[in-house]
Amino acid sequence: MVDIRELASGLQFPEGPVALADGSVIVVEIKRGTLTRIAPDGQKSVVAKTGGGPNGAAIGPDGKMYVCNNGGFDWHEIGPLLLPGNQPADYTGGSIQRVDLATGAVETLYTACGPNALRGPNDLVFDETGGFWFSDHGKTRPRDRDRGGLYYARPDGKTIREVVHPLDAPNGVGLSPDGKRVYVAETHTGRVFYWDLKGPGEIAPHSSPNQGHLLAGLPGLQLLDSLAVDSAGNVCVATIVNGGITVISPDGGKIEHVPLPDPLTTNICFGGPTLRTAYVTLSATGRLVSFPWPRPGLRLAFNA
């Protein structure tokens, strides 16, 4: 196990870490319904109250934070672990939100794509043109669950397209270093797929059922959460049950696992002066940790 440094604890299911140039890290607290800033000295401060269930987050071309809001969960405490459950009784839908980090003001950009409501938006990534890919994981109820998909939208609040549907609980989303491939991790299947891109928001169809290519599938009981791509093009995907980060080479031929002390390791981002620091959310135990990464991470489009 790597030598980790605990940056913050007592968080209410942290996810969506975004490392900022000043050394702070912004995370969502899904149960609390907030964006929370973790200062370099570990001090926590609420940036904005989003309500619902804020999940993935990313800086957009206007410097504001864009948030996938999954609409919330029922919550369960099992010993020291906090676990998300089914769609809650007060669920009103999923959305894409925009947050002004200076004022905390929250806008709702999207709640639907055409006639179809967003159910549980989960993770997002901006491309160089200022558009963003995002996954809709869907919601689970006692006897059924939604079929998810992959979407592309612009930050104008007017342009959104369903690109791939259905997917099985799509979660993490990332782009290759050259921007010519979009990756998606499916939670329950333990698989990472990719689609070659013809242009912004346009995939090159493939003959498979979901029009994509299988990068890798993990054996046994391993579920996948959010992901980040490093500068070598490796897909670094947070892994549930077998808690840690699974590192998959761009050709899918090499798979390594970095174990971490939380069965619900949910997300990773890269920061620091040379992007060689991995910031990881250990959600069930409510912690943000960091440790050195052997390669620089991939610099995200609008995160200076």
Query: CATH superfamily, called what?
Result: TolB, C-terminal domain
Beta-strand residue percentage: over 45%
From the 3D structure, determine the CATH topology. Answer: Neuraminidase
The major sheet is characterized as: 5 strands, antiparallel
Q: Level of helix content? A: under 10%
Computed over alpha carbons, the radius of gyration is 17 Å
Query: What's the CATH architecture name?
Result: 6 Propeller
Describe the protein's topology.
Blueprint: E1 5-8, E2 14-19, E3 25-29, E4 34-38, E5 44-49, E6 54-59, E7 65-69, E8 75-78, E9 81-84, E10 95-99, E11 106-110, E12 112-113, E13 116-117, E14 121-126, E15 132-136, E16 148-153, E17 160-167, E18 170-175, E19 181-186, E20 191-199, E21 202-203, E22 213-217, E23 223-229, E24 235-240, E25 244-248, E26 255-259, E27 265-271, E28 277-282, E29 287-292
Antiparallel strand pairs: 1-29, 2-3, 3-4, 4-5, 6-7, 7-10, 8-9, 10-11, 12-13, 14-15, 15-16, 16-17, 18-19, 19-20, 20-21, 20-22, 23-24, 24-25, 25-26, 27-28, 28-29
Question: If you had to describe this structure to a student in words, what would you say it looks like?
Answer:
- The protein is an all-beta fold.
- The chain has one domain: Neuraminidase.
- The protein is 0% helix and 51% strand.
- The chain is globular.
- The two termini are 30 Å apart.
